[in-house]
Amino acid sequence: MLGLLLILSVSLSGEVVLSNVVDDRCTAPIASDNDELQFEMNLGFLLCEYFVCSATGNSSDQFDPSLAAGGSPPVGCRRGNFDPLYRQAIEEFGLIMIRHLKDTAKALKGRAIPRPLLNISREAIGSFVNTAFGRQLTPAFDPYAAPDQHAIIAQVTTYTAALFLNGATARILDRDLRLVK
């Protein structure tokens, strides 16, 4: 399992390195504070729904229906085949993300950001993993089949979110929207 995680990390790292080569002809678009927060909230919703759905089989709506702000429920929400300890841990991660999303919404002072339509089905996630490996895996990758497969996707998504938040926090210009100092 460790080998699979290492291969996936190296595969994704290679793509990230290649896509971040600086070229004088390319400049990064300037995102507004609202764009940064929208993306941050979308990542938060993805993490929240991935953890809550795989732990309970239901979306975050079961804990706080207002959190979605009118957004669609996630596609492919299903309970994973996990042992009780792992299930409890990922449910706690989901609850932490719910609290984080609530705090972010509160900081936005009523400017609700609706939950985007998220596809967290095993087929969609399996397609992502196939792309990372550059080929169709047999048997198909199923993040809900076992804790080790679930943990790979959890690590990739939380790592991506952490990298974004680390960079985005410094770029948020409006002091009223600055969430982390």
Automatic annotation (TrEMBL):
Give the signal sequence positions: 1-19
**Which keywords does this Swiss-Prot/TrEMBL entry list?**
Signal
Does the record's keyword annotation contain Signal? yes
- Name this polypeptide is given: Uncharacterized protein
The gene is: 103492894
Instruction: Read off the lineage from the record.
Output: Eukaryota, Viridiplantae, Streptophyta, Embryophyta, Tracheophyta
Do the record's keywords include Signal? yes
InterPro entries with a match to the protein in the record: Pigment-catalase-like
